[in-house]
Amino acid sequence: MLENLQKDLHLPPIVWNILLGCAALITGFLCKYLLALILKLTAGKNATDYSLIRSILKRLGKPINYFLPVLVLDMVLPFMELAKKPMDVLNRIVEISLIIAFGLILAGLVKVFEDYVMHAYDLKKEDNLRERKMRTQLQFVRKLAISMIFVLTLCAVLLSFDSLRKIGAGLLTGVGVGGIIVGFAAQRSLSNFLAGMQLAFTQPIRIDDVLVVEGEWGRVEEITLTYVVLGIWDQRKLILPINYFIEKPFQNWTRTGSAILGTAFLYLDYTAPIDILRVEFERILKDHPLWDKRVQVMQVTNITDRSVEVRMLVSANSSGKAFDLRCFLRENMLSFIQANHAYCLPKTRALLEENEQKLLAQG
Q1: 172 pLDDT exceeds 60?
Q2: 3-class DSSP state for residue 276?
Q3: Cα–Cα distance list, 331 to 269, 287, 344, 359 (Å)
Q4: Is 209 helix (H, G, I), strand (E, B) or coil?
Q5: What is the pLDDT of residues 186-229, one digit of tens each?
Q6: Are 33 and 96 a contacting pair, CB within 8 Å?
Q7: How far apart (Å, rounded) are the C-alpha atoms in residues 194 and 225?
Q8: Which residues contact 324 (CB under 8 A, 6 or more apart)?
């Protein structure tokens, strides 16, 4: 059909080639915009809610924008009137563009899958142990998949050149020696990479886990192939090599669940009415939204030469709630003691000898 059209129009080859190329590119862009329009019409209106269509538009919009016009151009190349050498060059450019665009589409598909899994396993749930496990594995698999796609795309581009293909065949003989050299040179990096794989699937830590590392309390924000980012409670970031979590001990407060016990201490005089304080402790704790109703214990845990140590042991669904609940107990118990039993606050006692008592009486 296109050949007959060229004969009927009697256009010069250069004009015919330009028209054919422009028509191919315009057709590709029209197909892309029509597809995008259809997807937008079927997507939800609320931008805050998850939508598979919106995820596809976001992740695959640009790759398809490059892929479709080049694909249509590749389909009309046989109908162009070009000399052999320019045609070979144009064919090679179109072929490489298609390979790169297809690689971008594959990377976009990985991200679409990631969006779906992140929506299905939402971290906002109260008990999000399963979600944190999946997200930790997903983050590692996503980075590994995109890295493999990039490497395979680069290999496909290089193998499209005959000269590079011959060079590649010659380089295969040096892969063994090169691998040993690279292994020694990148021993630390390979160690971190293997530690990352072990970390992702054995999961001593997960995304959003609460850890105490190097004396710092924080949450796991990111796990890469080589390091872990810990968000400290005061908004600092603690960055540690990933093999740290394989080689050194640390505290994980959410390893099997987020529920935790918390303690608050009172230091009082020997005259403190423990039974009355225990009743008040149970009263202010009852029906408090931060308490999960599992544990409530008040006990005298130590007696020193000057004071009595009273421990209040409570439970909460998370470490953050436990911290707030402990602060609440301290403040309210202190207010109760000040208002009703101020005499039982810690005192320093002194024993006066008889002569000193007489001198004080005469003075």
Answers
A1: no
A2: helix
A3: 18, 17, 16, 43
A4: coil
A5: 455 566 667 777 777 777 888 888 999 988 999 998 887 778 89
A6: no
A7: 9
A8: 290
Burial 117-133 (b: 16+ CB within 10 A, else e): bbeebeeeeeebbebbe
* Residues in a beta bridge with 103: none
Q: Of 20, 2, 15, which is closest to residue 73 (Cα–Cα)? A: 20
What's the token pair of residue 272? 């403190």
62 touches 107 (CB < 8 A) = no
Look up residue 284 and give its amino acid. Answer: I
- Checking if the pLDDT of 22 tops 70, the result is yes
Residue 317: closest CA among 130, 126, 125: 126
The one-letter amino acid code at 174 reads: G
Region for 21 from its dihedrals, namely left if φ exceeds 0, alpha if ψ lies in -120 to 50, beta otherwise:
alpha
Cα–Cα distances (Å) from 254 to 206, 214, 247, in that order, read 9, 17, 20
Q: Which stretch of 6-10, 132-136, 150-154 has the lowest confidence by average pLDDT?
A: 6-10
Say which residues have a Cβ less than 8 Å from residue 165's Cβ, sequence separation at least 6. Answer: 158, 159
Query: How many Å separate Cα 16 from the centre of its chain?
Result: 53
Residues constituting the chain? 363
Distance of CA 68 to the CA centre of its chain: 33
Q: In whole angstroms, how far apart are CA 295 and each of 143, 260, 310, 317?
A: 42, 10, 16, 11
DSSP strand pairing (260-268 vs 251-252): unpaired
Using CA atoms, how far residue 177 sits from 151, 180, 279, 316, in Å, is: 21, 5, 76, 58
Structure confidence at residue 241 (pLDDT): 87
Contact 341, 272 (CB under 8 A): yes
* Intra-chain end-to-end CA distance of the chain, in Å: 127
